[in-house]
Amino acid sequence: MQNTILNDTYIVNTNKVDRRITPLLGQIEADKSDVKFLLSQSYNKLTMIFSGNELLGFLLWGMWNDTVHIHMLSIKYQKRGIGKHLLSYLGSITTGDLMVTALDSSREFYIRSGFRQIADDPLELIYDR
Ligand SMILES: CC(C)(COP(=O)(O)OP(=O)(O)OC[C@H]1O[C@@H](n2cnc3c(N)ncnc32)[C@H](O)[C@@H]1OP(=O)(O)O)[C@@H](O)C(=O)NCCC(=O)NCCS
């Protein structure tokens, strides 16, 4: 299943707000103004994964002081390897530490995607390159 859905996907990186992510914002209790604010900072970027015209998920992240910070991640079809694929892609296009401050509910996902916990409260994880 995982390989099937990732076939024929492509990734788009942008510095602009893209309205196609709007339906996925509800899953992370965010809205367009949060995205607009983050993308007004030049060190932040939006990475989207598509299959044809369909958006499968997105990642909003930024890099400063040689550290990559994950701000938002939301996937349309869950548990099919798309989130892990996006994180691995981010690891491949950036250098330096890749960090996330996460909710307990997504801890297992990050661990299974190659992260290691470094702090408890707030929960912080770092990608093992
Ligand atoms: C959390 C989220 C980003 C994960 O993305 P995903 O594409 O569904 O995850 P993947 O299929 O790539 O999963 C990667 C691994 O994590 C595991 N995993 C994914 N979600 C999990 C969960 N909720 N609990 C436990 N394990 C989980 C998968 O089983 C898989 O394990 P494996 O590689 O050993 O087979 C996605 O479910 C989502 O968008 N959730 C709603 C929004 C959200 O919570 N965003 C994160 C906030 S920072």
Shape: globular
Question: Helix tally?
Answer: 5
Tally of extended strands? 7
Q: How confident is the prediction overall: mean pLDDT?
A: 96
* Main sheet characteristics: 7 strands, mixed
Secondary-structure blueprint of this entry?
Elements: H1 2-6, E1 9-14, H2 22-25, H3 32-39, E2 44-51, E3 54-64, E4 67-75, H4 82-93, E5 97-101, H5 107-112, E6 115-119, E7 124-127
Parallel strand pairs: 4-5
Antiparallel strand pairs: 1-2, 2-3, 3-4, 5-7, 6-7
Bound molecules: coenzyme A.
Characterise the protein shown here.
- With 129 residues, the chain is an alpha+beta fold.
- The protein has a single domain (2-97), classed as Gcn5-related N-acetyltransferase (GNAT) (Aminopeptidase).
- 27% of the residues lie in helices and 37% in strands.
- The protein has helices at 2-6, 22-25, 32-39, 82-93, 107-112, and strands at 9-14, 44-51, 54-64, 67-75, 97-101, 115-119, 124-127.
- Strands 1-2-3-4-5-7-6 form a seven-stranded mixed beta sheet, sandwiched between helices.
- Strand 2 (44-51) and strand 3 form a beta hairpin.
- The longest helix is centred in the C-terminal third of the chain and has 12 residues, at 82-93.
- It is globular, with a radius of gyration of 14 Å.
- The two termini are 26 Å apart.
- The mean pLDDT is 96.
- Coenzyme A binds next to strand 4, helix 4 and helix 5.
